[in-house]
Amino acid sequence: MGPTVHSPQEPGLPAPAPSEAAAVSNVGRLAATIDRLRRQIQEAQRAAEGRALIEVAKGILIERLQCGLAGAAQQLELLAEQAGVSQLELAADIINQAAQDRISEATREFLDSARAADEADEAAEAADVAVRLRSAENGMVEAPDAQAVAVSLLEHALKPLGATNVAVWTVGSDGSLTLAASAGFSAVEAGRWRYVPPGVNTPARSALLERRAVWVRALDEVGLPSIGMTLTPDGGRVAVPAGTGGRIMGVLEIGWPGPVGPQPPQVHKQVEALAELCSHVLERPVEPGGGAGQAELIGLAEALPDAALVLQPHLDADGRLTDFRITHANPHFVDPAGRPKGAVAGSLLLEAYPLAAHEGGLFSVVENVHATGEPFKAENMTLTALVDDVPLPSLASVSITRHGDGVLLIWRLQDEATRLASLLQHAQRLGRIGGFEENTLSGEITWNRQLRDLYGMKPGEPPIPLERLADHAHPDDAVLIGRFLRTLTHHRRPATTAFRLQRSDGMARHIRVVAEPVLSPDGRLLAVRGAYQDVSSQHWTEVALAATRDQLAHTEQQAAERNRLALQLQQAIMPPSRGPMEAFDLNIAVRYRPAEKEHLVGGDWYDAVVLPSKQILLSVGDVAGHGIEAATGMVVLRNALRGLAATGAGPGQLLTWLNMVAHHLTDNVTATAVCGLYDPETGVLRWARGGHLPPILIRGEEVAELDLIGGVLLGALSEVTYEESRVQLMPGDTLLMYTDGLIERRDRALHHSQQQLLQTAGHPTASLEHRLDHLLTHSNSDTDDDTCLVGIQLVAPGTS
To answer: Which parts of the chain are coiled coil (predicted)?
Structure first.
């Protein structure tokens, strides 16, 4: 046995078992070896990619300088040394200048911004961007499949931007999205998102529908689902349509681990350049799962029963879509302008139909279908053609679909007969009308679909002949149906009737049937045709209206009776006119003008009576409301005031008591009133008011209202004290009390009407009676309310 070798160890630490130590040492060596080999492979890949770019640049120099391979290599080395850059950076710059594509545009963005900032740093960054993008392009060209393309994109171009994952979607003919490749996602996550049906809103679908790059700061902020959202719900995304020539073949979606803020225009250019690189990889002559070549598309158009056009995209020199070429028109093609198909086939769409270019018109729809692959269908689309420079609109049913790189446009013009037939069908549906025709010779019966629906019949059930109409009707309607059939088949005259249909599902419908006989020249009955209409809703409406009319008539009768009673009550207490009366040295006149409409009978009252104390009670009032309630309330307050006045109390106290009557002894009666007591011995009039307009004093040529004193509405509050005022009447003075029916108008404020009344009251008249009549005649009120008017005039000395 050989000598044993002991390894040194720190004191106090147990020595590892020989097998464990060896295992740890071997794993570490293996990991280091794997890491070294991975770095070598990456360096080899980068070197190979760099050599590929350098070889492309040499080829460009050979073409430009007309030199050999060795001369191109020497020239590249010399130019790089003179410019102070590496041969790889110079190669990328030469390719950019030769290509003039989106990658070179992205590089120029950085170089342009370098003029306003640190030129050296910006130029270096631009060179780095060019190298990365060209390396990514080279990796995509050499990639064996789409998955390798995604890996190359992420490794060469996206990781320097901070992105951690990428997905490449292809667009189906139905607008669906299929995950063609991905990098940075697990296999499980990629499997879950391998297919996105049409209609599911994702960042990629938003970019497809909007046909532009869509930047999302964080997925959880917009609520859009997408691949990888469970791992980085707050991750940022950008989705860019990938397409050429106006056609979108797919969508490039790039993800960041966290929210992504606003990016400079240079980054936007890089992303768009990468999307364009993807479009070249995704482009195929035939679309998977349902595309068609040009010959197959023409064959499809030929087999269609409607007018069809086959369209191919028309590109400009820069590869941008400008129009669509009409490459074929099928035999059923009908031009809205009446031109033969030979005049349309071969021309551009906007040349043949220039008015299709308006916003939202036919061209924009075709362009969107070609770009996104999402089919379009419309029942009533307006197609406008120019006929001798005159726009001619036509309605058509339009269908547009994409097949490979071509577009199939199908339309069916709606002629007058088609439109009328459609209009008739909708009218029958809305009116719930079903038509029929019954051949009396052959027994053949024809029903339309609406009639079958009225009967509640299932498809395939035979129609019901007229002679069996009573079998499906209410028994009480048999007589009406028999009379209808005799008139129609025996007397051979048009007939109509209504009956209650008993359907097989147990429902009962009210049906009106109208029919006419079809006679031969010699008078024989050949057929019967007509229509059924479901009038159930009309029947029940008429029943409800009849009940409502009966109830309304009864209500009107009750209201008229109440109004008649109210009017009789009011006229019994206050006749419209009373003769003049004299009391001591006063002339007293009253007028009452009832409302013109009986239902507006109100609660206005007046009173003028000599009290036992020899004082004269003068009052006017107005109970709120109309009708019997207002009339009875007026009676209560007027009689109460008379009884209270017999106590000898003053006007203020009388209104205080009257307010208590209105508040406590009536059913929610409120009123306004003016109460006055005239003392013949002193010539003094004491007065008080409860929410009423003040009296008017006419003295000589002066007309004015008495000074307003406080006093609230009667019945509003339980405890109220009313103010009292005095006025000394002079011989010849006239005092007027009135209710608001004399002056109230709907179109002006009350104080304007009061001013008008003062002017009218000052008009000179022969007597007090004439003055009151003049006021009523020239009243400008328009509310048709009751009006009470009381006038007193103090007799001048020496007059009787």
So the answer is: 27-82
Whether residue 273 is found in the same domain as residue 327? no
> pTM for the full model?
0.38
Question: For 783, phi and psi rounded to 5 degrees?
Answer: -95, -5
**Is 347 within the bounds of a domain?**
yes
User: How far apart, in whole angstroms, are the C-alpha atoms of residue 391 and residue 794?
Assistant: 89
What is the average per-residue pLDDT within 539-563?
Answer: 70
Q: Which residues pair with 727 in a beta bridge?
A: 685
DSSP state of 466: G
What are the φ and ψ backbone dihedral angles of 378, each rounded to 5 degrees? -145, 135
Q: How far apart, in whole angstroms, are the C-alpha atoms of residue 608 and residue 592? A: 13
Together in a domain, 396 and 466: no
Give CA–CA dist 790/589, Å, rounded. Answer: 6
CB 691 within 8 A of CB 739: no
191 domain residue, yes or no:
yes
Strands (E) across 172-272 are located at: 177-183, 195-196, 214-216, 237-244, 247-255
Would you give the distance in Å from CA 451 to the centre of its chain?
A: 36
Distance CA 650, CA 715 (A): 19
Q: What are phi and psi of 619, to 5 degrees?
A: -155, 150
**Among residues 414, 439, 467, which one ends one of the domains?**
414
pLDDT digits over 209-233, tens only?
Answer: 888 899 999 988 888 899 988 888 8
- Report the distance separating Cα 165 and Cα 146, nearest Å: 15
Judged against a pLDDT cut of 60, whether residue 286 lies above it is answered with: no
Q: Which amino acid, one-letter code, is at 143?
A: A
Q: Do 271 and 316 belong to one domain?
A: no
Q: Where is the domain boundary, 142, 175, 193? A: 142
**Nearest Cα to Cα of residue 205 among 173, 241, 254:** 241
Token pair for 732: 């010849």
Angle at 375 between CA 370 and CA 377, to 5 degrees: 125
Taking the alpha carbons of 73, 75, 77, 83 in that order, is the dihedral positive or negative?
negative
Cα distance between residue 611 and residue 756, in whole Å: 35
Residue listed under structure tokens 């499997």: 191
Split into its structural domains, the chain has a count of 5
Could you count the other beta carbons within 10 Å of the beta carbon of residue 184?
A: 22
Taking a C-beta distance cutoff of 8 angstroms, is the pair 561, 554 a contact?
Answer: no
CA of 362: how far to CAs of 324, 327, 355, in Å? Answer: 12, 17, 9
Of the candidates 157, 182, 170, which has an alpha carbon nearest to the alpha carbon of residue 49? 157
CA–CA separation, 770 and 766 (whole Å):
6
Q: How crowded is residue 546: how many other Cβ atoms within 10 Å of its Cβ?
A: 10
What pLDDT score was predicted for residue 65?
64
**Model pLDDT for residues 34-69, shown as the tens digit of each residue:** 767 666 655 555 555 555 566 666 566 666 666 766
Q: Is 609 helix (H, G, I), strand (E, B) or coil?
A: strand
Q: What is the CA radius of gyration of the chain?
A: 51
